[in-house]
Design goal:
The protein is an alpha+beta fold. It folds into two domains: 99 residues, Orthogonal Bundle (Arc Repressor Mutant, subunit A); 45 residues. 57% of the residues lie in helices and 14% in strands. A three-stranded antiparallel sheet has the order 1-3-2. A hairpin with a 2-residue loop joins strand 2 and strand 3. The longest helix is centred in the C-terminal third of the chain and has 26 residues.
Length: 161
């Protein structure tokens, strides 16, 4: 197999096979959806997103933000929750959004490599590797491929220098 150039960064996205086209279209067919994911990256992928904050920080109408939040939630890119806010004697409910596991992969796809710490990169690598190994294991059972042969390939590739 040909070596990958050192200037290329391998991006991996795990997609639910039955929704891959809808997910890709929803995210990459809309600049607003991409900007929502970028906003999430900039503030930290584990932090909650709020509609009001997105409208204030991104140059989109309330309607556009709401439509994209609904679409991303329906596709499982975002998870939606209700939060109670108290200001003085007033209590209001607001929707909060958080990236799902799939949503994090898409946000990370948009990240610049230099924006990630070495620890974050290492965690991503380990997670990708674990998911990939599980997929290979399941596929090898389905195709009745000897696991020992795969282990030998793994060992060879890990010892090549």
């Amino acid at each position: 197999m040909e070596n990958v150039s050192k200037n290329l960064h391998p991006y991996v996205v795990f997609l639910p096979s039955e929704q891959k086209t809808r997910i890709l279209s929803a995210i990459f067919g809309s600049k607003a959806a991409v900007d929502i994911l970028k906003f999430s990256l900039n503030q930290g992928i584990s932090k909650k997103l709020y509609q009001k904050e997105l409208i204030e920080k991104l140059a989109y109408s309330n309607k556009t933000i709401i439509e994209n939040l609904k679409a991303l939630t329906k596709l499982g890119i975002l998870k939606e929750a209700m939060e109670k806010l108290r200001k003085g004697n007033r209590t209001t409910w607001v929707k909060a959004y958080l990236l799902s596991d799939t949503g994090r992969w898409f946000a990370l796809l948009l990240a610049k490599e230099e924006d990630l710490s070495k620890e974050e990169e290492a965690d991503i690598l380990k997670t990708i590797f674990r998911i990939y190994i599980r997929w290979v294991r399941d596929l090898s059972e389905k195709l009745q491929v000897d696991k020992k042969a795969l282990e030998e390939i793994f060992s060879e590739e890990m010892t090549e220098g």
